Amino acid sequence: MSARPDAAADTASLDAGAFRDAMSRVPGAVHVVTTRGPQGRAGFTATAVTAVSDHPPTLLVCANAGSESTRALVANGIFCVGTLAWDDEPLANVFAGRTELRGDARFGQGRWTTLATGAPVLESALVAFDCRLVSAEVVGTHHVLIGEVVDVRVGRHARALVYRERAFHGL
Question: What is the CATH number of domain 7-170?
Fold first, then answer.
């Protein structure tokens, strides 16, 4: 299915702020997405993560195209998605850029290990999906990243961290 030719004109008048406000009402699980490779270790907090397929196992992550961490992930070609527990909120803030920590210094928070790809895996994550990047396409302000899951680690049972109305909540 393709978009109508005039679809862009239909949405051009929609205010970006109104869209962001509306999306803030949609709760989302909070994840830390990490990478390691020739471009170094990097990571960011994300809520736009979803399964695409189970054959092959594939995830979709949306990430700010202007972010240094996103550029590192695309260049490194590997990433891990770690789903955060309620008590990981401080780490979510670190990787969201809400502290003075940047780049590799962010990994001083939390305990880290690796799986098959070598991307950093947060030991406290509820679940971790270790991925090889298979597609990266820029759509508007974000990269739509598709990763084939090559390994998983199921972690502890705990309350999940979710983001809704611009605040963290436990679920």
Answer: 2.30.110.10
Q: 71-100: per-residue pLDDT in tens? A: 999 999 999 999 999 999 999 999 999 999
CA separation for the pair 53, 65 (Å, rounded):
24
Say if pTM beats, i.e. exceeds, 0.90. no
Q: What is the side-by-side order of every strand in the sheet holding 57-64?
A: 42-46, 31-35, 78-83, 127-139, 142-154, 57-64, 49-54
**Phi, psi for residue 132 in degrees, rounded to 5:** -105, 130
Residue type, 36: R
Q: Domain ranges for the chain, please list them.
A: 7-170
Round to whole Å and give the CA distance between 95 and 90.
9
Task: Mark the ranges of the chain whose per-residue pLDDT is less than 70.
Answer: 1-12, 24, 27
Who contacts 171 (Cβ-Cβ below 8 Å, separation ≥6)? 27, 86, 159, 160, 161, 162
On the CB side of 123, CA atoms within 13 Å amount to 6
| Contact present, 122 and 112 (Cβ < 8 Å) | yes
User: Cβ(99)–Cβ(109) under 8 Å?
Assistant: no
